[in-house]
Amino acid sequence: MQCREIDALVMKYLDGNISEIEMELIKKHNENCASCAEEFAVLSDAIYTLEELPDIEVPEGFTARVMSSIKEQKRFALTPQIVLLWIIGLAGLAVFMINVVMFAVIPAIKSSGILIAAYNIMVYSGTIISNAIKDFFVFGSLALSKLLIFRTILLSEYLVFVVASIGVFIAANMLIVRTLKLQQKL
Q: Is the model's pTM score more than 0.70?
């Protein structure tokens, strides 16, 4: 038998769940393999030592104290940083969806022959998306400015949010304009 097969049998032996035939296989292998014999001896000694240790009693009320300390811990705090991460994530998702539309949906529409309908839908949805993104970032900037007054957020974090928001807005609008230009060429 190979060493890795013996390892599985050794684990069964250490669990006390081994047959006599499997024990004989371990003994025969260990007679020919010094490294497995040494490992078997070390593991056996370790298990024997652990079994000889006295049982430790848990102090009274230990479980109740642990459970009460778990309940007392804060579960979730909505911080401005978490809000910012959500906004950036949603903006990234919006950019991803625009790319899906541009590079997957539009080519499928071209091949199906309903290009005019797709163009009209794209122009309409592009306008709606652009306005929604604009409104979202305007509202987000206003809401964040209110938070800055009341929560004393560092100015650098606010600037990162504004720059990221403007960047996402510009990128989204550039994608929409590019899509419209591609549609006009067709």
A: no
